[in-house]
Structures
1.
Amino acid sequence: MTQSNVGVIGLGAMGLGIARSLQRSGFKVHVCDVRDEVVQAFAAEGGVACASPAMMAAACDIVITVVVNAEQTETVLFGDQGAVAALRPGSLVIGCATVAPTFAVELGQRLADKGLAYLDAPISGGAAKAAAGQMTMMTSGPADAYLKAEAVLAGMAGKVYRLGDVHGLGSKVKIINQLLAGVHIAASAEAMALGLREGVDADALYEVITHSAGNSWMFENRVPHILNADYTPLSAVDIFVKDLGLVLDTARTSKFPLPLSATAHQMFMQASSAGFGREDDSAVIKIFPGIELPKAQGKE
Amino acid sequence: MTQSNVGVIGLGAMGLGIARSLQRSGFKVHVCDVRDEVVQAFAAEGGVACASPAMMAAACDIVITVVVNAEQTETVLFGDQGAVAALRPGSLVIGCATVAPTFAVELGQRLADKGLAYLDAPISGGAAKAAAGQMTMMTSGPADAYLKAEAVLAGMAGKVYRLGDVHGLGSKVKIINQLLAGVHIAASAEAMALGLREGVDADALYEVITHSAGNSWMFENRVPHILNADYTPLSAVDIFVKDLGLVLDTARTSKFPLPLSATAHQMFMQASSAGFGREDDSAVIKIFPGIELPKAQGKE
């Protein structure tokens, strides 16, 4: 049996997990990233190092972009040494970045014009699930894209939601997830800030809320960062400046009001302007004045 | 063995569940409510009907108030035919309404001045858990109040959080839970509204979000009401006009900003002013213009 070749562009926490999962699933995984050291490290694990997306495309019929945003997606596909010019007709691009739905729609058309298939496929679940091949994918695209993608999706994701046969629906569902995620992180910060202001024990408050109707996935996941005073960025404040920005841009196109998203976006921008943009997104609590946050000392 | 007497004032969905749970736990349960028919119905189940809180207080050393707000709490305790004047010194009042923490503190002092113990004890969990004796209680108060309350709490709650020895902490944690609950309901509505506006399938969106990081207890619980077009008020829009109002009043006392709570409060007030105040709180989605909500036809 010959191994199928697949390319992964972008070896951040998610991309590296995807690359390893695909390798474990039996694919020959070609990788590239602006950081040469992570590319070489993955090559030492049995992957194939590529100097550019164009060089990867010469060897792969399926290329997965796991970069941060639309701008980077544009660069790795259409930029100097981008993948598209080198991909054979009939090849498939799977786009995992969180991007504006309109960008996903246009990208699908631009790739179709080159004879390439596209799957709009944002991902969710975090680095641990990516490493385990158990991510969630929010996908949409034409039937032929799904046909080509089938084995690769099975190798990288635990759950693949198929949201329709047109591009953009995957990205719409992803940004709606980000709307809720962003509002919930900001609400978690607001609730914990009020508790601290009112002299409620922060650990007890976390315990009660996580067992009550006020709970959210984000409250449960992010508030421990605040309690432990650990603002190491697993996902940064500036990611939500970007993602809630995409949410608001999408709604603005049809002049649709999103009062909570707009408020949460302002909170993340306030945190970023105050110098916390590269800290963990739970650092949005630092915008609240007049409270004393838990300190690292004395915590596990 | 003689049965201990305990009184429950207010036989709404929560109060009736509490009364039945206590009866099942072996208490002789005395009840009163402004609606005589529910009092008589409970008497037919073996309870003791009381014509007024004062008449209840003559027979009970423990009285539990399960009314809607501070105003009703005031009336049943201190109003005409209120319980307090008739309670024997050393008796205990357990206050379950969601009230301002400052009201709970003052109430504790006023009852202490009469020789009565008070437990600040808001409840959470909904009617089904109340009926099963499995509610969550967020409590605070002095040690002697807990001593007197012990058997009753065990008979009515699955989980009793003890948040400190001063009144108000229970109410503070409860309103912080309501802050999150209210923001999450409004955010659920905003997210579903954007999905509908963008042509995303509403059922698929619910399925994806409930398995993703954007999930919340309220999203999972309330969005099915929207999908089924069933706005029967399990908890009404006007409850969150009140509860987020309490949250904001509490923060205003110390001039503390709560941007998301303030925004969500405006959304519930907009829904109430538009005529949806007595509908289910998920009806806050009706403030979003330019979308077509799911209809009841064709749904299970």
Note: Chain B is about 50% helix and 10% strand.
2.
Amino acid sequence: MLAGLLNGKAISPQQPAIHIDDRGLLYGDGVFETMLLRAGRVRFIDDHLHRLQQGCERLKMSPPVIGQLREELQQLVQQHRDGIVKLILTRGRGGRGYRAVAGDATRLWQLFAPVASVGGGVSLRWCDTRLARNQALAGIKHLNRLEQVLAQSEWDDATINEGLMLDTESELISGTMGNVFLVLENVLVTPDLRFCGVHGVMRKNILRFAAALELPCEERAVRPEELHAASEVFITNAVRGIQPVTRLLPSILNGQQWTVGETTLRLIAKLNECHQENHAS
Amino acid sequence: MLAGLLNGKAISPQQPAIHIDDRGLLYGDGVFETMLLRAGRVRFIDDHLHRLQQGCERLKMSPPVIGQLREELQQLVQQHRDGIVKLILTRGRGGRGYRAVAGDATRLWQLFAPVASVGGGVSLRWCDTRLARNQALAGIKHLNRLEQVLAQSEWDDATINEGLMLDTESELISGTMGNVFLVLENVLVTPDLRFCGVHGVMRKNILRFAAALELPCEERAVRPEELHAASEVFITNAVRGIQPVTRLLPSILNGQQWTVGETTLRLIAKLNECHQENHAS
């Protein structure tokens, strides 16, 4: 960790900082955002703050004070140009019992060193761990993440970059840490996340780019076998951007492979363009 | 809080004690137990420790060192005779990312003052919030508890003691903080929890008592409408024991009511007897 801030005050990683009655610890009662700091700016900050607001609303938490969060973010990154910014917002401290009492949220900011990007394409596998369906929690980037933890524990082969997850009704939903897009007969397709999954900030922007590029696009239920029919596959997340998928391992189809296709390349170009616009403004 | 212990060291509630990279906070990555301390003994301690072990195994956490936990429990309660003991066991500290790295678990013990018992029967309501189905997490008392938090946020009428929850396929599962039992044509029935819910320590003991009393008993899928056909209803939890349900409010059936029936009374007597045996031994 390069820097940390708890409720506006600087903290170090070695210093215990969270109270034992914080509801984030007790129940996973909160939301989080993971963002890319690049050349002194946080990419898609408005989208991240918007999703945070929506998550708070859905979980009936007090609305975050956006101006305060923007100030704290400035304070966090002031001496840094690049990195990964993580914000955890919990419902705050509370006694024993699930019932939430009105109180101040806990605002925990952390800045980490940038990650090295995976060159070329990434390799995927299927996870056995399923995502449960619950419309009350679908789409929210909340702190109840045991399904993702269990899914990632399924493999330790470093050549596999990400695992794909189905829900309990065997629909394809997402990766463990990002959303998934397929190109099927020249249509860009991504799971609609009506029952589970996270509404990714990068996913939202891909859909916006696709509209701008007039690419036909569908958000809908996706069956896992459709992956094998896809001409292009990529995964997205706010930090790593668009990652073309080139391999599915170990595959029942003996190691399915994809090349990085035109749709993927056009969307990557659009994402890069969007960066340049940001930095020219 | 009357006393607290973190990884064997005494802590106070006012002192920040948890690191910001504890996986309990980051992902709800851990399990917990809530136990009754009465007359200097923790009720069903062996069952609690057994469930904790099973939860760790299911979540692929390191197995807890039971001897160490028993020693810490003695240390926690040494100056107290009665109260509620809560143990949170997280996967410990870890960096950014869902992937678990082998490390020491975080052991957080807290002792709270005893709760006043609800005299007579308790009143229930139905919750709108559903429990998601995921066999990978079913039965475990893990820290991903947003569904219970949302369910309890649905009412603030202090005359309602507990809310009943259905799963996403409309099976009756449990209360927000305890299991549920019905008596249907002289058979004791409780949901089988194959897809969700928590395998309660009190539930387990009720099933044991029922066997000892030769009460016919079924663990099976339960439809919500069966509640209305039940001659007796009670809810159970490790701290509050057996709570007879006398009212369902607000009811589409105009406030259904139950009296405290013979099966419930026999099980309560058996639970009390079991206490006396414990203290005579």
Note: The mean pLDDT of chain A is 94.
